[in-house]
Design goal:
Strand content: under 5%
Number of helices: 11
Helix content: over 70%
Structural class: mainly alpha
Shape: globular
Radius of gyration: 20 Å
């Protein structure tokens, strides 16, 4: 077989695996719903505070960060609201990608025994994360009312912001979890990367404190900078994201999702041998 024919065959195989996985997710959509329901119920049924914990956790972090940094960033309007609006978006990303890694690494043996779409646990993890994210917005809205931050019609844009954030999170989760299956140290290294990534993203500090000369490398090449900004602007600023930020966030989200889906689908059949 010629080199060009091998390349075409491999490309078709990768494409068919990704499309087959997509069809499987659609056919097993009821299973995805039940997995999300199970995760939500399991998380809260033994908790004294129940669902309230999802709303209190980001509030607690916001209070701590506000006490530590409020003096330093006193010029930031409604600083607690500023922190919380970025923190809940980041928390969704970090917690959900970690959940995808855990389900992928520990689910290999299950995939060997029964047939399931390999991406089912990843998709359900994003679904569970979106439920928690929606609940986390409630204390943010309450904080906005308490601090006098006006709630404008642009808040309805948050649905698209969540969709783009979910797409990027799923794609990153699929990529990192695929690497973690073959290289177990990746999951430990990812925790360090997450911590550094958070501090490189303007969540607890305003982006204006970074010199203009360094903003391109620190922010424009940071996908979470665009997605946090898209999430924050409709609520905190009461404005729709500008077209450059929206375009950058949309492209990076869809591209990451497509790459992650193809890579994961191609390697999924090998996961059981590394469980």
């Amino acid at each position: 077989m010629k080199t060009s024919e091998v390349f075409i065959y491999d490309s078709a195989k990768r494409g068919s695996a990704a499309l087959e996985e997509l069809r499987g997710i659609f056919q097993y959509r009821d299973l995805i719903f039940q997995l999300v329901r199970r995760d939500v119920v399991t998380r809260y049924k033994r908790s004294v505070l129940g669902i309230a914990w999802t709303m209190l956790q980001p509030l607690g972090m916001m209070v701590i960060l506000s006490l530590v940094f409020s003096t330093l960033f006193a010029s930031v309007r409604g600083y607690p609201t500023y922190i919380l609006s970025g923190l809940i978006a980041w928390t969704f990303f970090s917690q959900t990608t970690n959940a995808i890694i855990v389900h992928t690494v520990w689910g290999g043996e299950l995939f060997r025994r029964i047939y399931l779409p390999r991406t089912s646990f990843a998709v359900s993890s994003v679904g569970t994360g979106l439920v928690n994210l929606a609940l986390s917005i409630v204390p943010l809205l309450i904080l906005m009312l308490l601090t006098g931050t006006p709630l404008r019609w642009s808040a309805f844009f948050i649905a698209l912001s969540m969709l783009l954030l979910a797409a990027f999170t799923l794609g990153m989760g699929l990529i990192i979890s695929t690497l973690a299956v073959f290289f177990p140290d990746v999951s430990e290294m990812y925790q360090i990367v997450l911590l550094a990534w958070m501090y490189l993203t303007p969540i607890i500090y305003p982006e204006e404190i970074i010199p203009q000369a360094y903003r391109y490398w620190l922010f424009n090449l940071n996908p979470m900078y665009h997605l946090v900004k898209i999430f924050r602007m409709p609520l905190y600023d009461g404005l729709l994201p500008d077209w450059k930020t929206l375009l950058a966030g949309g492209i990076v989200s869809l591209l990451t999702l497509v790459i992650g889906w193809i890579v994961y689908s191609k390697k999924a059949d090998e996961f059981a041998y590394y469980a």
